[in-house]
Amino acid sequence: MRTYTVLITGARAPVALHLARLLDGAGLRVILADSPASPIAAASAACASYHRLPPPRFAPQAYFQAVADLVRTEAVELVIPTCEEIFYLGALWRDRAMPARLLAPDMELLTRVHDKHAFIGLAQGFGLAVPETTLLRSDDDIEAVRGRSRELVFKPVWSRFASHVLLRPPSSALNAISPSAAAPWVAQRFVVGEEISAYALAHDGKLKALALYRSRYRAGKGAGIWFEQVDDAAARNFVETFVAGTGWTGQISFDLMRESDGTVLPLECNPRAVSGLHFFRDPEAFTAALFEGAEVRPDVDRPQTVRLAMWVYGLPSALRSGQIGSFRQAIRDADELLDWPNDPAPKRAQWRALAEIASKALRQRISLQAASTRDIEWNGPLQSSI
């Protein structure tokens, strides 16, 4: 029987580990790759081999060659990105003839949906409700919205983890912003409501998997570390309409807001995997959705969390807010998403992975969160490599 080989990149991410376990459980050969020395997924029994790559942000040409060599020497048939390395891989597949399929749309569409202004325009073009969003590319653009700063959210077009976001700031805070054509910002209407995150898998514009969820605890302002499923017909309609309009193939994720009248508005899009993937734990069903076009629904009901992240980020937040009782209850209510039958090593490996990130953060004098993705960040087609 022929072995089908899949390469999963972004092995540092829990979603990469989860994907590896799903595909390995369905009988595929899974190899993983990333820039860190000791990502958690590399320790998994689902990982046939781990390959360390050059950092794409700082050594893109070396990264391109290493991936191309890996795909050929390991006879890879499908490459599945999980983090922002998807943009570097998109560029590689655009510029070179590659023997494997990349689970992603073309680079032009990847760029448009990652652009926080272009994404809103794209959604509006599909007839979807959107919040007012203004592109800022100069000091004059800042002055044009300064008088309404208390009604707006300001954020870089190319950013992640809610980094650098200004929520309804005083006008004086805008003096620190210097948008340009290479590094634009957006000013978006502040939407009052309930946040909903969406993870989806689509093929040729048809939705194959969807998990809608809410994050109660986060790593700072950004990634959720404790999340529970929600059900919202308007949010599902948004995702279905968007993937159909773009003809999307691959993984895609959204940050949405549900207003009090039930209207769901998009804030931004990430064309990659996010934590909603953890609500799928049936290897055969998910792999059928990925390869055979079947539809799959989440099969996990309980909230999911990474307990180490809860102690690092959630506990300090609970102490500051005086909600330690709620924190303890959340720990009890949620399943550890790193747990998997007959695969205990990644749970232990997270300590080594955390130590590697912490060391980088100390050396570079940046936050843990920034250190976790600095080498794979993609800040638009005009980005500097530094």
Commentary on this structure:
By secondary structure, the chain is an alpha/beta fold. It has three domains: 1-104 and 344-376, Rossmann fold; 132-189; 194-342, D-amino Acid Aminotransferase, Chain A, domain 1 (2-Layer Sandwich), CATH 3.30.470.20. The protein is built from twelve helices and 16 strands. Strand 13 and strand 14 (264-270) form a beta hairpin. Helix 1 (14-25) crosses helix 8 (283-291) and helix 9 (307-321) packs antiparallel against helix 10. The model has no long low-confidence stretch (mean pLDDT 93).
Topology:
Blueprint: E1 5-9, H1 14-25, E2 29-34, E3 49-52, H2 60-73, E4 78-80, H3 85-95, E5 101-102, H4 107-114, H5 116-125, E6 133-136, H6 139-145, E7 152-156, E8 166-167, E9 185-189, E10 194-203, E11 206-218, E12 224-229, H7 233-246, E13 250-258, E14 264-270, H8 283-291, E15 304-305, H9 307-321, H10 324-333, E16 335-336, H11 345-364, H12 368-373
Parallel strand pairs: 1-2, 1-4, 2-3, 4-5, 15-16
Antiparallel strand pairs: 6-9, 7-8, 7-9, 10-11, 10-13, 11-12, 12-15, 13-14
